[in-house]
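Hi everyone, sorry if this is the wrong subforum. Our group has a chain we'd like a structural model of before ordering constructs, and none of us has done structure prediction before. Sequence below.
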Amino acid sequence: MKFAYSVKQKMTIALLLFCIMGCSILIRVLEDKSIKKMNNAFLSMYKDRLIPATDLFFLAENIYEKRFLLEETLNQPGLDKARISQTSNRLENHDRNIDSLIRKYEQTLLVKPEKKYLTDLKSKLQAHRLIEQNILVMSSKHSAQEGKKMFETLGKTSFQTATQKLSELTRIQTEVGEELIGNSKFMVSGSQIYSALQVALAIVIGILIVGIVFTSNVVKIQNDKFNLN
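Answer:
Right subforum, don't worry. Here is the predicted structure as tokens:
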């Protein structure tokens, strides 16, 4: 009877240990997945948010430099065709820089609103380029004053529309970045929970080991008494 009870007790302990082992493996798998997601979140923060945000800054810089260049040219005394041609070439250089930055930006992970605003920005920039060229043509064929009038009306309105789309893209960058930070904090909390569970399981295992040792000692003492009798 005692033998059967001892075997049953050992089977129960073995089953508990097996369950604890299974829980430990599951927690380890979940923790590895959490760490992987956390790593992907940090990579996305760098590759898809930090670098593109820098590209947007350089994009804005090129757009503003184009405006200042055009305005400076139109205010140039004795504006001639050579100066206009030089300005046109410099504007084209900025346009190439802008196109390169946009292509680089398109290769990053874009959320749905971001794709929409980027498409709108490309459209507005293209329209703004046509207006810039028309301003230069107007200044070349007629006078700098005619070019200035177009710059003050169509040019400034087009510029403001383009920069507004750029501001919307920058705002989305901030919002998605904050969302990634929130997800990272959540995953860190999950990792802390997994660590706490692992500590709890280690404590349970320790208690079971103490219980097994204590039970073995009790059985040994009883067997010794039985042998003495």
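For your construct planning: The CA atoms of residues 24 and 198 lie 7 Å apart. The mean pLDDT is 76.
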